[in-house]
Amino acid sequence: MAQAVTVAAERTSFSHVLNEGRAGFRIAGELETVNVRGDSGVVRVRMELQAPDRGSGLSTRLSIALGQTAVLGGQPGGGEGALILAVRPELTVR
């Protein structure tokens, strides 16, 4: 299990390597669009979660409301364990 937080602007890519050196994971993606209206909004993001040592991963493109959590998951080809990714976009004003 691992956790990562990233800050990304619209139309930028991001990548994290977690637990490097043991059962590692790579999270990557691109924040495609951000649409904000008043207090709410939606982001469109492309996400990838890879477990190279297992030879498995998941990839998707989704729209998520700001402040809401999307949970993605799948079982690797070998049948042991599962890959689960929770994504929660939040707007940060700089």
Summary tags:
94 residues; mainly beta; 0% helix; single chain
The major sheet is characterized as: 4 strands, antiparallel
Unreliable stretches covering 5 or more consecutive residues: none
Q: How many extended strands?
A: 6
How many separate helices? 0
The arrangement of helices and strands along the chain is: EEEEEE
Average predicted confidence as pLDDT: 84
Radius of gyration from the CA trace? Answer: 14 Å
> Which structural class best describes the helix and strand composition?
mainly beta
Strand order of the largest sheet: 1-2-3-4
> What distance lies between the first and last C-alpha atoms, to the nearest angstrom?
30 Å
Q: What's the number of domains?
A: 1
In helices, the fraction of residues equals: under 10%
Percent of residues in β-strands: over 45%
Gross geometry? elongated
Helix and strand layout, with pairings?
Elements: E1 12-18, E2 25-37, E3 40-51, E4 56-65, E5 70-74, E6 83-87
Antiparallel strand pairs: 1-2, 2-3, 3-4, 5-6
What does this structure look like?
The chain is mainly beta and 94 residues long. The chain has one domain. The strands form two sheets. It has a four-stranded antiparallel beta sheet, with no helix packed on it. It has a two-stranded antiparallel sheet with strand order 5-6. The protein is elongated.
Short précis:
With 94 residues, the chain is mainly β. Helices cover 0% and strands 55% of the residues.
